[in-house]
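Narrative of accomplishments. A recurring question from our advisory board has been how the design workflow behaves on a single, concrete structure rather than in aggregate. To address it, we present the structure tokens for one chain from the evaluation set, followed by the sequence designed for it. No filtering or post-editing was applied between the two.
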């Protein structure tokens, strides 16, 4: 009996080692950022997040890859967290610093193990399934389908399930699908992160193109900008031809497509210029200008001491701009975010082709969604950033089990 039990657990451990990377991907890139899924199982992010840290840590320990190195950079973040908490006379800033440290160290440890070809392929196909579900739900609602049930997002907004996708944005029978996430912009954010992974891991360009195209169903203005940048980057020799074609296409669309058409209602109307001189779909620039009008010594020291999304649903919207962390929690704890923005700018100008493209995409994402401390999105962001920063130290290998990886002289080698 004991031999049978031992054999069973050995087999189970072997199967777990084969598919653990995929489970970690689902945990980090889908389950943690998905508040609807968390609501369905009745657990909040405050409960799920510590378990996620525990699972990732145990997995890395089991393959001897957990390396919590305390260097000058991590020590600096710790000092920033302590100092920010002291001058703000609160614990939020200190907790944010500790969360940031944990995410950075775990992400760096996991880079050579997590990003295997099979795992990246798995993430790509899961992403395609989520996006196809978003398209299905769009047409389901357009042809008269109604929501199956409704959940409440953490910020209190209702989130409706239309057959194969959630949404919190609907206009009559037209919806902006959000997949398994809380809003359409979050689905676009997730899709762009997966594209970054595909580019960094040498994936096929048509995969990135497919993901960008499918992500257009979110009607996200940032998604369209990222897609256009990707097209220009890939076809830069034909840059001016593409630009002229896009201008002609936009001119035709705005003048000849009926005002009540879907593309006019959900997208082209967001590109029109308001009487104030800004693009209708731009809800970020007014936040930045308002931030500087609200800025005070007390906000720089302590922040507003309120969750940014709570602020957004009340009288002041400072939830989604480069200064959201500063407004919510003070200048000191904002500095690590500013530092990494400058790092991405550096990579955008001096690094190789893949790093340049990914750094530009990450800049566009993080300037409008500064989620580096977020328990929902922080892990996925830091896994992508760590892959970009450290991938050149490792060889990108195929589907060998993790236990056969060996780190030596900045390369991953296979034990023979």
């Amino acid at each position: 009996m004991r031999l049978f039990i031992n054999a069973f657990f050995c087999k189970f451990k072997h199967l777990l080692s084969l598919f653990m990377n995929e489970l970690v991907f689902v945990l980090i890139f889908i389950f943690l950022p998905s508040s609807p899924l968390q609501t369905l199982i009745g657990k909040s992010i405050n409960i799920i997040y510590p378990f996620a840290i525990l699972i990732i840590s145990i997995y890395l320990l089991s393959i001897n890859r957990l390396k919590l190195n305390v260097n000058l950079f991590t020590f600096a973040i710790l000092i920033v967290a302590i100092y920010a908490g002291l001058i703000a006379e609160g614990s939020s800033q200190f907790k944010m610093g500790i969360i940031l440290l944990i995410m950075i160290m775990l992400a760096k440890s996991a880079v050579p193990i997590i990003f295997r070809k099979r795992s990246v392929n798995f993430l790509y196909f899961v992403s395609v399934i989520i996006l196809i579900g978003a398209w299905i739900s769009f047409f389901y609602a357009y042809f008269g389908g109604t929501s199956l049930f409704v959940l409440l997002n953490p910020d209190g907004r209702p989130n409706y399930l239309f057959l194969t996708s959630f949404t919190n944005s609907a206009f009559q029978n037209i919806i902006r699908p959000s997949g398994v996430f809380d809003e359409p912009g979050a689905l676009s954010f997730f899709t762009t992160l997966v594209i970054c992974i595909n580019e960094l891991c040498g994936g096929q360009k048509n995969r990135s193109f497919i993901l960008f195209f499918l992500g257009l169903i979110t009607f996200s203005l940032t998604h369209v900008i990222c897609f256009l940048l990707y097209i220009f980057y890939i076809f830069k020799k034909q840059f001016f031809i593409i630009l002229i074609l896009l201008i002609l296409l936009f001119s035709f669309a705005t003048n000849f497509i009926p005002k009540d058409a879907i593309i006019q209602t959900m997208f082209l109307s967001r590109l029109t210029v308001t009487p104030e001189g800004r693009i209708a779909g731009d809800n970020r620039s007014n936040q930045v200008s308002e931030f500087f009008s609200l800025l005070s010594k007390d906000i720089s020291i302590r922040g507003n001491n309120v969750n940014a999304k709570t602020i957004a649903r009340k009288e002041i919207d400072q939830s989604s701009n480069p200064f959201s962390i500063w407004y919510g929690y003070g200048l000191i704890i904002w500095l690590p975010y500013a530092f990494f923005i400058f790092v991405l700018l550096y990579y955008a100008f001096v690094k190789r082709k893949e790093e340049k493209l990914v750094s530009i995409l990450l800049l566009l994402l993080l300037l409008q969604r500064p989620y580096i401390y977020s328990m929902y999105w922080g892990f996925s962001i830091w896994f992508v950033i760590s892959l970009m920063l450290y991938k050149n130290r490792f060889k990108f290998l195929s589907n060998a089990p993790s236990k056969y990886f060996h780190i030596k002289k900045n390369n991953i080698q296979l034990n023979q």
